[in-house]
Write a structure and sequence with these properties.
Number of domains: 2
Helix content: 40-55%
Strand order of the largest sheet: 3-2-5-4-9
């Protein structure tokens, strides 16, 4: 019926409107984040992609977790288990238990929940699979202590067929919650502010690199110049356009009359972004628990890891190891049982080395000197001689 169609006014003046360019960053999901909603895997993936220091922190913690060795009582079982850990297929593209644990731990830090699967064929473990969380739901069982891993098939959660082959870990879960909390929880807001600052810096440099000019023509007081002001302005605009479109050739712009040319925005002062960016990065680095210099931030000329920082970081890494150890033991016990061995085994993690080798050598020297001094004092007290 055309109720909303308006008749065109032929005599209406034509108005030229410049289309405004979009100033939003490509990670708009950070601006639409609502803290009260359930954790979103796309949000945390966008955080890692948008802020490189967050992605670097995740990889750094994954490297710092170190290696491990699983020990069991039988020599034959030990040899077979070591060979299995070196040759097991992981996702079809990687090999070895270290690759599986690295991806598993990275998923745990990023999303707060990690899910893996032990893939069997003819009662043999043929692969370890890191399952994506998009199609997985955690449901509560008949009691509050039971967690059922379900796959989302056509919008209906369906429990997995063999739950004993599923590996599940959660990071810092809230009371009564089945899911864990991501290491990146709480960084969406500050990251969105950081992206706005970076996006504004990019737009300012784009304007500086592609200058805009304001050409102002002021007619003279005589009547002839005022009568032809429109034609003169059009000629000035055309000649200015040709001068700007000359490409790599240099052309001069010559005009007659009172013409003023200024660079748009040249008088405005660009805001200093160093202080706000550093304040935001301090919040991000504090959330990761890593010293700033480990992420490439030299905020001080004497950046180095102190003993207190090393102790705190060591305690964080040991807490992560306590979450990963049950997963490693479950994989090991499953392989041992399927191959007819006893299922008893232990995980021995490599020693965390965060201090300088020189400081460690000095510490060992001081410890040896103290022990020697204690033995000398004890021997002197026993013999009754003078020390």
């Amino acid at each position: 019926m055309g109720l909303f169609k308006k008749a065109k006014n032929q005599n209406a003046p034509t108005t030229l409107v410049e289309a405004q360019r979009s100033a939003s960053n490509p990670f708009g999901i950070l601006d639409r984040y609502t803290p009260l909603c359930a954790p979103d895997t796309k949000l945390y993936s966008a955080l890692r992609e948008a802020v490189p220091i967050i992605d670097a922190a995740i990889f750094k913690i994954t490297r710092l977790i170190g290696g491990f060795k699983v020990t069991c009582g039988s020599r034959d079982a030990q040899a077979g288990l070591d060979h299995f850990f070196k040759t097991v297929s992981v996702g079809g593209t990687q090999t070895g238990i270290d690759s599986f644990i690295s991806t598993y731990f990275e998923q745990l830090l990023t999303f707060g929940t990690a899910v893996g699967e032990i893939v069997l064929n003819n009662r043999k473990i043929v692969s370890l699979y890191n399952a994506p969380l998009d199609d997985i739901e955690l449901c509560r069982g008949e009691n509050a202590l039971e967690t059922i891993v379900c796959t989302n098939v056509n919008g209906t959660p369906t429990a997995v067929k063999y739950p004993e082959l599923i590996l599940l870990s959660v990071l810092n879960p809230e009371a009564g919650s089945l899911r864990g909390n991501s290491l990146l929880k709480g960084l969406a807001f500050v990251s969105s502010v950081l992206m706005k600052i970076y996006n504004t810096i990019g737009l300012n440099f784009e304007r500086v690199g592609n200058l805009r000019f304001a050409v102002t023509y002021k007619p003279q007081s005589d009547a002839l110049d005022k009568a032809h002001a429109r034609e003169n302005a059009q000629q000035i605009a055309e000649q200015w356009r040709k001068a700007m479109q000359s490409g790599d050739k240099v052309k001069d712009f010559i005009c007659v009359g009172d013409v003023d040319i200024k660079v748009i925005g040249a008088d405005n002062q660009v805001l200093d972004s160093e202080v706000p960016v550093r304040q935001i990065l301090e919040q991000i680095v504090a959330k990761t628990g890593l010293p700033p210099f480990m992420l490439g931030l030299t905020w001080s000329s004497t950046e180095r890891m102190s003993k207190q920082q090393a102790d705190m970081l060591t305690s964080e890494l040991e807490a992560y190891r306590r979450i990963l150890s049950p997963v490693i033991i479950r994989i090991s016990e499953t392989w041992l049982k399927l191959n007819g061995f006893s299922g008893n085994c232990n995980v021995e993690w490599d020693e965390i080395m965060l201090q300088d080798e020189l400081e460690l050598a000095q510490a060992r020297l001081y410890r040896a000197q103290a022990q020697e001094l204690e033995r000398a004092v004890h021997s002197n007290e026993t013999t009754g001689g003078d020390f």
